[in-house]
Amino acid sequence: MGSTRKFRVWRGDENGGDLQDFQVEVNEGEVVLDVIHRLQATQTPDLACRWNCKAGKCGSCSMEINGMPKLGCMTRMSTFTEDETVTITPLRTFPVIRDLVTDVSYNYEKARETPAFAPPAGVAPGDYRMQQVDVERSQEFRKCIECFLCQNTCHVVRDHEENKPEFSGPRYFIRAAELDMHPLDAKTDRKEYAQASMGMGYCNITKCCTEVCPEHIKITDNAIIPMKERVIDRKFDPLVWLGRKILRRDQLNGQGQGLDAPSGKPAGVTGHAKGVGPTSARLPEPPDLQEDGKLALTEITFDRPAAPSPFGEDVSFPMRGTSYVHPDRQRETSPEDEGTQAH
């Protein structure tokens, strides 16, 4: 049997808004997202809400329910008493577009700034060999569904908008930790980069991000704290300290500080893998923004790849005989390859 429950839903846009009261029928086994859909169908068809899979795997229906960042599709109505008013508001950290939909492009900008995986030299695609024990520690971080609840609850940007340019947030700290712990990643200065360019020093490990993670990733204990410890170990290593006292700065940093001398831009593997000490000179390359500071529409329509392939322009991947040809190039197909092209 269903019951009528009271809801307060935030309605408005970037110019302002307010909470509106609704009386909605709730049936057994339903979640908050079901109630929002019923509201759209029966009382307020113009209520804006972002959602996709309704299975807790896409992270689209992020919202704040009674002040707690949660997924609408994973919050059961049975967790509230029948006389309790359920208040639904948009994510507070990000600008409101309309109603429960917020502009989370900040997170995608930080994703573009994070250095990508660097394949080891001399190892072709398909030749990678790893044991399960090699990836067990970082495999947990691959469960992230990018709901950005951790980004939303982090007080470094939730309460201080001015920190956003220098702070990447917990979602990208676990990305940096994942690559730093990856057995095949050739970049060995990721922890220094996280400290110098991602603002990891702003984090004071309150574990708010861990508490709201729907995938139960131990963001603080397994990613942020180990990365902080590695930075400290490197910074206060007595041998490193002695080397800084003896050697000149140019001898420590090498030529161009990890950058190609002619162009001044990062090229391929950098840091220790290139024989260069840790440096913050390798600056991020953010995407092109419009005059209003938002991503251009072309970033959504994908008229160009998000980032160049680390394996080059034209690569064949040995996967069950299927050949991959870059779409911008025309290449003659040999007779033995005719039957192996992907359909």
UniProtKB/TrEMBL annotation:
Gene3D superfamilies: 3.10.20.30, Alpha-helical ferredoxin
Top-rank taxon: Bacteria
Gene Ontology CC terms, in alphabetical order: plasma membrane
Region (Disordered): 253-290, 303-343
GO biological process, one term: tricarboxylic acid cycle
Keywords: 2Fe-2S, 4Fe-4S, Iron, Iron-sulfur, Metal-binding, Oxidoreductase
Cofactor(s) needed for function: [3Fe-4S] cluster; [4Fe-4S] cluster; [2Fe-2S] cluster
2Fe-2S ferredoxin-type domain ranges (all copies): 5-92
GO molecular function ontology, one term from the record: oxidoreductase activity
Statement: the UniProt record of this protein carries the keyword Metal-binding: yes
Pfam families: Fer2_3, Fer4_8
Family indicated by similarity: Belongs to the succinate dehydrogenase/fumarate reductase iron-sulfur protein family.
Protein name: 2Fe-2S ferredoxin-type domain-containing protein
Organism: Spirilliplanes yamanashiensis
